Amino acid sequence: MGDFCQIDKQEIIKRYKPIDKYTHKGLRGHALIIGGSYGKMGSVVLASKACIKAGAGLVTAYIPKCGYDIVQISVPEVMVITDDYLEHIIKIDYKLQPQAIGIGIGMGQHPDTGHAFLNFLKMNKLPLVVDADALNILSQNKEWLSLLPKKTILTPHQKELERLIGEWNSEDEKLEMVRKICIEYDLIFVLKGVPTIIIDNTSTYENTTGNQALATAGSGDVLTGIITSLVAQSYKPIDAAIIGVYLHGLTADIAYPDVSYQSFIASDIIETLGEAYLHIIA
Ligand SMILES: NC(=O)C1=CN([C@@H]2O[C@H](COP(=O)(O)OP(=O)(O)OC[C@H]3O[C@@H](n4cnc5c(N)ncnc54)[C@H](O)[C@@H]3O)[C@@H](O)[C@H]2O)[C@@H](O)CC1
Ligand SMILES: Nc1ncnc2c1ncn2[C@@H]1O[C@H](COP(=O)(O)OP(=O)(O)O)[C@@H](O)[C@H]1O
Ligand SMILES: [Mg+2]
To answer: What positions does the domain YjeF C-terminal occupy (predicted)?
Structure first.
């Protein structure tokens, strides 16, 4: 059993990088968010807005055509590239060179999307955050795990994890099953839950922020945007996962006394990100 670390403010301060006065958006990282399908474009709006609010200099969303007006109107700061197909992604094709890619949110599991995902995995060498339907497609094609770049960050909730690794009889058994995959493919797992636990080979990190206000649609999509943003800003993948999970949970701790657990929604995470950043640099 490797080392265990509680993610508290001290752990964040150790990893946080101040923003240079003479920076510009070209130095703040370009993140690419790939996802969306008919009826679930909100997940890309949430993830891409979270991505730019978490500090990426540039964010581009790669989405099916149905989402073009939705994303451009909802988040004018985010640029958009559309797939040729209307309702879901059938070919992942873009000319830009991002520093990080977040994929899977709202993407759906249509066979054409699965085929596009496989072709993407075969050619992609860039740092990757894999969530939601990209995880579900991987669960149906486990041999594709070997195509993931080293230190790819996977962010399953409990059900997505069960689809990926099968059932477990105890928390300890679950963590051992995850550690085995981490070591086999050199991956990082963000096990979203209460608390969220991050596994990086034999290292285990337990988050100390967050509360039940986060049990709301889209909060995981937002986390994907935040972590992708931090990787694009040149944080090491493990540090992006640690800081991202901490900030994400901290927004709920900051906001719930004013908005209650029930009325805190995923958009509130994004709106409270600035205050969360100020808490860690104060
Ligand atoms: N506004 C939007 O466009 C939204 C789009 N979403 C997308 O919808 C797709 C499906 O994601 P979902 O997570 O909703 O559906 P899933 O089918 O992956 O998970 C839902 C099922 O898993 C169970 N589950 C979910 N979270 C769990 C947890 N923490 N512990 C135990 N069981 C849990 C639920 O009980 C339910 O049975 C994804 O691509 C996601 O990105 C969702 O994020 C919701 C919001
Ligand atoms: N009761 C809870 N306490 C703390 N965090 C929670 C709770 N319920 C959910 N979360 C967090 O909310 C997020 C849910 O992610 P996910 O299920 O992927 O949401 P979605 O797919 O709807 O965006 C995770 O980060 C999880 O840790
Ligand atoms: Mg999710």
So the answer is: 8-280
Ligand 1 site, residue 42, Cβ cutoff 6 A = yes
Q: Whose CA is nearest to atom 1 of ligand 2?
A: 212
* Closest C-alpha to 210, from 229, 225, 191: 191
What are the pLDDT tens digits along the chain (282 aa)?
A: 679 999 999 999 999 999 999 999 999 999 999 999 999 999 999 999 999 999 999 999 999 999 999 999 999 999 999 999 999 999 999 999 999 999 999 999 999 999 999 999 999 999 999 999 999 999 999 999 999 999 999 999 999 999 999 999 999 999 999 999 999 999 999 999 999 999 999 999 999 999 999 999 999 999 999 999 999 999 999 999 999 999 999 999 999 999 999 999 999 999 999 999 999 998
The number of domains in the chain is 1
CATH for 97: 3.40.1190.20
User: Which atom of ligand 2 lies at the shortest distance from residue 193's CA?
Assistant: 27
| pTM for the full predicted model | 0.98
Name the residue with the closest Cα to ligand 2, atom 13. Answer: 220
CA 193 to centroid of ligand 2, rounded, Å? 6
Residue 84, judged by CB atoms within 10 A of its CB (0-12, 13-18, 19+), counts as exposed
Asked whether 231 and 190 are in contact (CB, 8 A), the reply is: no
The verdict on the CB of residue 157 being under 6 Å from ligand 1 is yes
